[in-house]
What does this fold into?
Amino acid sequence: MVFPLALLFLFIAAMAISSIGFKNYVWFISIGYGFSIAGEGLLMMLMYGKTLSLGTVLCCLLLVAYGCRLGGYLAFRELKSSSYKKNMTGEIKDGKTVPFGVKIAIWVTCAALYVTQVSGIFYRLVNGSGSNVWTYIGAAVMLFGIVFESVADIQKNNAKKVNPRRFVDTGLYKIVRCPNYLGEMIFWTGVLLSGIGAVTGWQWLVVAIGYIGIIFVMFSGARRLEIRQNKNYGNDPEYQKYVKTVPIMVPFIPLYSVEKYKWLVA
It folds into this structure.
């Protein structure tokens, strides 16, 4: 099993960008995550500029767009949104009590995950496979995921402006309770699909680690959100009806709660 040197470059880039987490350790998996993905997409275009095809350019640009949108949204929420800070007081640790060694472990692990997440596109470039129908299918799914997640974030922000004390059950939130996380999963499914016909052998192991890893993180995030919402709205009869009738993550799949799955910790 030989790992291309370029894979190390992606890892170094992810390490450099996500090091913002040393300012606030939560940023390893939020702001640092978004901008790391954007940086990796840009770096792949720079490294393989001479062999890029239309499909691979689209996929890399979508990584950049996804990362910049997510990183920018999270940065604005963290730094400018007073309501978010108020709601998260006591919910998220500031990291001051987290040992430095633990922060190093989180930093390295996250950067490695971010590399594996983009590896479906990376190996298409490494293998010189150009574009096939799966490249464009993957790109289309990636674009849909970005739009879906963006619309979910906008709808939630608008709903909270109208009634900041009520849970959101309008728009995409009528379909699933965590449509932003669903958008994330759709996007990364697109990245996975884009590698079909180009990724070979053991390379699929790296791709699978990235895909399974981010799906796990999304369900873990959904569990944290569910616990927080149960605490805030648990006595509301409308909320109780909502959580019993609307799936938490995936439409049409009757999974209404993940709170009891304590292994969903990330």
Summary: Residues 117 and 211 are 6 Å apart (CA to CA). The mean pLDDT is 91. The chain is about 65% helix and 0% strand. Residues 5-245 form one domain.
